[in-house]
Amino acid sequence: MANTKKLTLFGLIGITMAFFGTVRSVPTLAITGWTQIFYMLVAAVLFALPIALMSAEMSTSYPEEGGPQVWVKNGLGEKWGFVTSWLLWVQMFFGMVMVASTVGVLFGYVINKPELSSNNFFIFIVILISYWGVTLLNLKFDMVKIAGNWGAIIGVYIPFVFLVILGVIYMMKHGIQPQSYLGNFKAKDLLPDFTNLGSLTYLSGIIFIFAGVEISSVHANNIENPKRNYPIAVIVSVLLLVVFNLIAGLTVANGVPKGQMQLANITQPFMIFCTDLGIPTIFVNLISAMILIGVLVQLSAWVLGPSKSMIKVADEGNLPPFFQKRNSRDIPITFVLIQAIVISLVSVLYIIVPDVNSAFLIITITTTILYCIVYALIAISAIRLRYKKPDMERPFRLGKKGNGLMWFVALLSMFSVAITIIVSLIPPSILKPSQYTGYIIYQVVATIVMVGIALVIYKLKKPSWKKSEQTKLEEK
To answer: Sorted alphabetically, which keywords does the UniProt record give (predicted)?
Structure first.
């Protein structure tokens, strides 16, 4: 048996950061002004770190493919394992609408028509074209292989570095701008304004930066000395992400005049910085095109990833044979087309909700709530597995002996998840009072429906749904 090349500590740090490297979330961070420091620390310490550490223990205990679905299935049973895989699939409906919405904004700047960035109907049409476009391309070609890592380098890392550099130069030139989101600094600005509950909702959008933190745990078994190196890699990665995001967030908050932040428009700060520093606007067009490439590559990667996980769940008999269909390239065609149709329907929010900012934030928060339910199930499973399988080999284990540290980390995670869901149900301050009731109803109904569908499907499942071993062999 060939030796698998082990990841170094620095290699895992790089991979972990690559999962969360995104320039799109910077405006959501920046709109909170100085409070973003508090929010980022809360998101990192209470949310990202506990989930990453629990995931590492379960990932090394269950190295087979499947991730959270496998952990929850072993901890809480097949029903909740199915709910977990279902929620990780359906959250993409909302998450990909939010990602695809930036395509229209960026395209407007690429063609020198920035006014299109606030045109709801244009954003809606571009979401449909871009998502169906990458879906159809993925049915014919291996787009992830074609795009490769260059998509992330061109569309994420280079723009992020330029944003930070331009923002720092702008701040050095002007200092802290009194008319910006940073304004005249006061110590109380570092904490949320608890008299304005609507501002707390931004915490949910900031926590979304770390959503998917469990993904890096798949590499925990492939790192040298996981007991020592994995927690170091996770902690260092999260700290670096906090630092880089805060530098970008604070400089953007200093550049954009208060009340004018466009959450779906990462090009806005580039335009402000370049105009002020005398850099030709062709640079903004170029950066917009680069970020646009990065967004399309990201959309392309997500078209097949969750679907491939779901078809395994379908083959186990949790979904009818209709969902088990594959095309000639072994792509789960039913899942891919269903997600494209549902994403098209969810994107109608950009027509119903007049303000692009509001629609963007609402969809981001829905995605975060669904992720939080998955993380609650992971935390409960982590504790349960300690008692169900106490003697199981755990290459990475929270605490040398006993279950005290696991209880602490899991309870910390469940506390942060509960707080996130509660603040997510508070109507954001950018909404009008007349929209408050509709917002709460939408978030509650969307969550109940998404969880409810999974429970109903599981309850109605039949033995005949399970794919026979003979059928599996014939397909191979």
So the answer is: Cell membrane, Membrane, Transmembrane, Transmembrane helix, Transport
